[in-house]
């Protein structure tokens, strides 16, 4: 019985470690049971959101409780990605989106100029989850 439990733990650990960034993101979003299911299903995927459709995401999901913030927490792992973002050319106030350990800024309209850096921020989040 002990061997079976040990094997199960090792298999679970290995599956978690071998998961790619999207699988880890999806796993986190699957736990957002109080958030909007349409938004989490449609947009909780690094390949499903980019600078070309982030406004669509925000327009659909901002008014649906804390869904956007919780999804951002899943994508960012609430880790400070400032160094990665700087290396990708993100500057100024847009770095606030990279400094995700405090959550996402909620006054999105004040940051519209940051849309041109959205893919770089997203890629930093993805790269982090690939190895963590």
From TrEMBL:
Residues 1-19 form the signal peptide. Residues 28-125 form the Domain of unknown function DB domain. It comes from the Eukaryota. Coiled coil: none annotated. PANTHER family: DOMAIN OF UNKNOWN FUNCTION DB DOMAIN-CONTAINING PROTEIN (PTHR46705:SF15), PROTEIN CBG09805 (PTHR46705). This is Domain of unknown function DB domain-containing protein. Pfam families: DB (PF01682). It comes from Acrobeloides nanus. InterPro entries: DB. The keyword ATP-binding does not apply. Keywords: Signal.
């Amino acid at each position: 019985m002990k061997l079976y439990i040990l094997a199960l733990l090792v298999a679970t650990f290995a599956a978690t470690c071998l998961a790619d960034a999207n699988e880890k993101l999806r796993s986190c979003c699957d736990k957002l049971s109080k958030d909007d299911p349409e938004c989490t299903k449609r947009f909780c995927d690094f390949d499903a959101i980019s600078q070309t459709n982030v406004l669509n995401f925000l327009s659909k999901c901002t008014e649906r409780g804390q869904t956007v913030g919780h999804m951002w927490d899943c994508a960012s792992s609430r880790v400070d990605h400032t160094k990665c973002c700087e290396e990708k050319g993100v500057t100024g106030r847009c770095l606030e989106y990279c400094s995700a350990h405090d959550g996402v800024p909620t006054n999105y309209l004040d940051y519209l100029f940051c849309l041109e850096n959205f893919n770089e921020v997203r890629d930093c989040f993805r790269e982090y989850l690939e190895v963590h």
